[in-house]
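Hi C.,

You asked whether I'd gotten around to modeling the 225-residue construct. I have! Everything is below, sequence then structure, no commentary in between.
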Amino acid sequence: MNIFESYLEEFSQSIDLTDFLLNMVIAAILCAVLRWFYVRFGYAISNRKRFANTFLPLGLTTLLIITIVKSSIALSLGLVGALSIVRFRAAIKDPEELTYLFLSIAIGLAAGAGQVIVALIAFVFILAILFAMHRMGGFQAFRKEEHMYLNIHTQLDDLAKISDTLLGVFPFVELKRMDTQGEGLSLSFRVQSSSVADVDAGRKALVALDPAVSISMVDQPELVI
């Protein structure tokens, strides 16, 4: 208990607890607003709500680290040494996700350094730009493409005939992968489909070519195949 009290006293002398709590509250509010904005106006195909849940703990953790290490050169050097042995392998599938992660980290950095006014101004300015881009449809071209992955396993070995059949149904067809399995083919296409009717028409056309064909269509552009 005496050790904890001495540490708390030392911490209080180097860091103003009132400012620290205020910075935490402001950072939490900004991260919460950022989460709402990303879920509402983001364009990533992945689960945005689940991904946005990381903004608040990431921002507050960054704030805590900066608040602690800024008062001690020894702690700063120790942090550099600790991070040098840590390897982060988070899979970022969309550049937009990386942008929002950096923004949440920046909020924590600014709040931890006591620059909450700067954080507020920059935060409002950046969100205003993102909202303006959203209103102008800066990313709508991607969303309207409505690309899907079509995986086919068939006993046919005529790739050209299969491609021509798909082109007769879908406005856009791109072969992404081909595997040969015995006498048949396993194919992965990226196709553009704007309605369920197109998907059903493509299924019927493929079944007409090969009644035993296996078809899988996935609306996940970030899927690795």
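If it helps when you're writing up: The longest strand covers residues 173-181.

Thanks,
B.
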